[in-house]
Amino acid sequence: MKIKFILVALAGMLMVYSGAEAQSNTKSKRVLVAYFSHSGNTRVIAQYIQEISGGDLFEIVPVKQYPTDYNSVVDQAKKEINAGYKPALKSKLASIDRYDVIFIGSPNWWSTIAPPVSTFLSSFNFSGKTIIPFITHEGSRMGRSVIDIKKLCPQSTVLEGYACRGSNVKDAHDEVANWLQKINMVKK
Ligand SMILES: Cc1cc2nc3c(=O)[nH]c(=O)nc-3n(C[C@H](O)[C@H](O)[C@H](O)COP(=O)(O)O)c2cc1C
After folding, report:
1. CATH number of 29-182
2. Mean pLDDT, the chain, as a whole number?
3. What end-to-end distance do the CA atoms of the chain give, in Å?
4. Residue from 66, 64, 55, 63 nearest 104 by CA
5. Among 108, 145, 167, which is best to mutate for testing ligand 1, by the most ligand atoms less than 8 A from CB?
6. For residues 121-136, average pLDDT
7. How many Å lie between the centroid of ligand 1 and the Cα of residue 112?
8. Do residues 159 and 130 lie in contact, with contact meaning Cβ atoms separated by under 8 Å?
9. Which range is least confidently modeled, 22-26, 122-126, 145-149, 161-165?
10. For the purposes of burial, counting CB atoms within 10 Å of the CB of 153, is it exposed (0-12), middle (13-18) or buried (19 or more)?
């Protein structure tokens, strides 16, 4: 009787242990790291996340490139965001079905996500999936990005995400690793 009790207790402990294991890494999750980057900062963070989480990397590229001149892109972005414009994308992901977790990266443009990211989020059914935003910025952090992502993906779980100042991305590897550790998104 005593031995039976010990065996049951051991089995229970084993189940709890393996459950904790399953949650502490991305082994059981299929992860996509999708991002748009105009001047390269968000790409750096996307690459860190890809390396640490082991997910697939996907760059969101609009058909028509944004101007490189700062004032021109700022003007164009303002007009597009105010109009709710969703530019056509060059690169198409075949399907989102095979992913459970989608990291979505964008520069903060006028306190929200860049229009190509809105197009991407409107192109698939993200119901039941977990969306994890990451934003690079020059002072406004996430702005209203999370609120706007939730509006586009109302049936998804949208986490608070991660914000990094664009000028700090080169030094942010450890910070990204700590964040991913905290949210159990480190590959085994
Ligand atoms: C069109 C445009 C609008 C921007 N708006 C904001 C803003 O509202 N708040 C902010 O903190 N930074 C803003 N920035 C700065 C960018 O968010 C920042 O430089 C970012 O790291 C750029 O990412 P990228 O190199 O991946 O394109 C803006 C930049 C551009 C080009």
Report:
1. 3.40.50.360
2. 90
3. 39
4. 55
5. 108
6. 97
7. 9
8. yes
9. 22-26
10. buried
**Which tokens in the block code for residue 140?**
């406004």
Sequence-distant (≥ 6) Cβ neighbours of residue 47 within 8 angstroms: 57
Please work out whether the CB of residue 123 comes within 6 Å of at least one atom of ligand 1. Answer: no
Of 17-26, 59-68, 72-81, 163-172, the one with minimum mean pLDDT is 17-26
Residues 70-115 have pLDDT tens digits of 999 999 999 999 999 999 999 789 899 999 999 999 999 999 999 9
Structure-token match 């990397």, residue found: 57
Q: Is 75 in the pocket of ligand 1 (CB under 6 A)?
A: no
Q: Which sequence spans correspond to the domains of the chain?
A: 29-182
Integer-rounded Cα Rg, in Å, for the chain is: 19
Q: Does residue 67's CB lie within 6 angstroms of at least one atom of ligand 1?
A: no
Q: Confirm or reject: Cβ of 116 under 6 Å from ligand 1.
A: no
Residue 132: in which H helix or E strand, if any? strand 130-137
Cβ burial of 82 (10 Å; 0-12, 13-18, 19+) is exposed
Q: Is the full-model pTM beyond 0.85?
A: yes
